[in-house]
Amino acid sequence: MAYTQFDVSSVVDDLAEQPLDAQLDMGHVPGGWAGHVYLAVKESVGLCRVSQTCIREICRRRQKQRRAGDAGTSKEGEGGETAGGLGQEDRVRRVDNLHVSLTRVFYLQEHEICGFVAALEKAARAASRGPFAIGFSKASVYASETGRRAFVGLDIGHGAERLAGMARVVDEVMRRFGKQPFFANARFHVSIVRVDEGGRMIGRQQEKELGAAMQEEILALPAVQIAQLECSFGNRFFCIAL
After folding, report:
1. φ and ψ at 168, to 5 degrees?
2. Sign (positive/negative) of CA torsion 4, 105, 34, 111?
């Protein structure tokens, strides 16, 4: 097992727009590189279809509320704009770079990065049981840590135990570098759609209705193979084979 580094500085400006869950709400730390450890999930026709269904259902329900005269606070105009001046398509978007997070966003100094990746590679190698598959069970809504955005995620059923084991391995490395471990009792998921600040957040009843509308397609999704652990620091990416 060994890690591979990718330098993608040519697309660093685009990366700021690629939502890595909480990273969207984290500010820059002077002298620090934003880090994130995760498992990349390969895009598929099925996942794309589920994302489209999710967006369509969110927008359909909001249009229905507006037609019912929802508090009289929004006006339909050209292109279906909302009161904030943004169309629904601007506030509800597909998530690119699908992944399962194993850490919160954290920060390291540049000289610490190589040591962190080496420690992560060593710990992953010692605990590795090889590649594995994950399967999806249902949809849930997750809020970012600051509450500025909501994400619709596909909860992981099959393979969740392996993910929990990997998270514990990563947590030990995080603690060695004085960083906060992952959430206790984390619910592992893949975020597929984001709802930006300014759009109405998705309530519990809407979450249930949305999940019911998506459930058949979610259960029909094939298992996703996970073969490597990934780590990013700004525009530097590292892959660790499992």
Report:
1. -65, -40
2. negative
pLDDT at 226: 97
Short-list 233, 222, 102, CA closest to 169: 102
Place of tokens 């949305």: 210
Rounded CA separation 56/62 (Å): 10
d(C-alpha 99, C-alpha 42), whole Å: 8
CA distance 90 to 97: 18
Rounded (10°) CA dihedral 80, 84, 90, 94? -110
d(CA 197, CA 46): 28
User: What length does the chain have?
Assistant: 242
pTM of structure: 0.79
Q: How far apart are CA 107 and CA 34, in angstroms?
A: 5
Q: Which amino acid is at 81?
A: E
pLDDT tens across 52-88, in order? 999 999 888 878 777 776 555 544 444 433 333 334 5
Tokens encoding 96 = 């690119």
**Contact 113/233 with Cβ under 8 angstroms?**
yes
d(CA 3, CA 121): 7
Tell me the per-residue pLDDT of 114-156, one tens digit each, with 9 for 90 and over: 999 999 999 999 999 999 999 999 999 998 877 778 899 999 9
Q: Report residue 2 as tokens.
A: 């060994």
- Beta bridge mates, 106: 35
Under 8 Å between Cβ of 35 and 109: no
Helix (H, G, I), strand (E, B) or coil at 182: coil
190 close to 156: Cβ distance less than 8 angstroms: yes
